[in-house]
Amino acid sequence: MRKPIIAGNWKMNKTVGEAVEFVRAIRRGLNDIEGGERILCPPFTALAAVHEVLAATDIGVGAQNMHWQEKGAFTGEVSPLMLKELCQYVILGHSERRAYFGETDEGVNRKIKAALAHGLIAIVCVGETEAQYDAGQTAAVVGGQVRGCLAGLTAEQARGLVIAYEPVWAIGTGKAATAAGAGAVIGLTIRGTVADLYGEAIAQAVRIQYGGSVTPDNIAEYMSHPDIDGALVGGASLKPDFVDLVRNGVRARS
User: In this predicted structure, what is the pLDDT of residue 109?
Assistant: First the structure.
């Protein structure tokens, strides 16, 4: 069975002091949850502090983005070489990065390869916009994103990725996808595309999260679906009841 994996993406929220205070408040509760991976993804400024607070736990730390180069004249960017000392995971290709900063599947692919080269586990985001959803283009768009992001990866490299299906129309809107709807896209389109590329065994090994208006109240419904292995959580990860969200999700898969 694929191990559940729930990650909190704080986005551009919490100062260093706020991050430390929050993590100290939820650390014990998160650490006591067994049977799933728990990851906190603070902004770059708080990575080192959060890493230190969580050092004695098995709670993972993730970054929200990175550049594909190790170093160089890239003002404002952060490299995998810098991140590997502070975290184990990195979110790549989030819809907000695509929408506001012009990121493409090709660029995300370069970042994935750089992350893998430095031992970081990539959480690769894919998902369709509301217009694409309404036009019935979900399978074509999401399948194309998976193929573009995974281009040139070996089967073993693909096996170690985490993919997050985040329909753009559900992120921060309160309009969460149904578990059946999200599960169908994950099972048929995402796993189906991975199976086309690498075979069924790899497709069944890859962990795939759902993201989009996930709450402590609806997480169990998602995690009860056999194809949904976890969640990439935005706003709800900024609150103390994120512990309840994680607990409810892991219990639903036990």
Answer: 98
Q: pTM of the entire structure? A: 0.97
Check the CA dihedral 237-239-243-247 and report its sign: negative
Which amino acid, one-letter code, is at 214? V
- Express each pLDDT in 197-234 by its tens digit: 999 999 999 999 999 999 999 999 999 999 999 999 99
DSSP string covering 86-108: T-SEEEES-HHHHHHH---HHHH
Phi-psi region of 85 (alpha: psi -120 to 50; beta: other; left: phi over 0): alpha
Catalytic residue among 94, 128, 221, 225: 94
Tell me if residue 232 falls in helix, strand or coil: strand
166 has catalytic annotation: yes
3-state secondary structure (DSSP) of residue 246: helix
Boundaries of domain holding 210: 5-252
- How many domains does the chain fold into? 1
Active site residue 77: no
Tens digits of residue pLDDT in 64-75: 999 999 999 999
Any idea what the CATH number is for the domain that residue 233 is in?
3.20.20.70
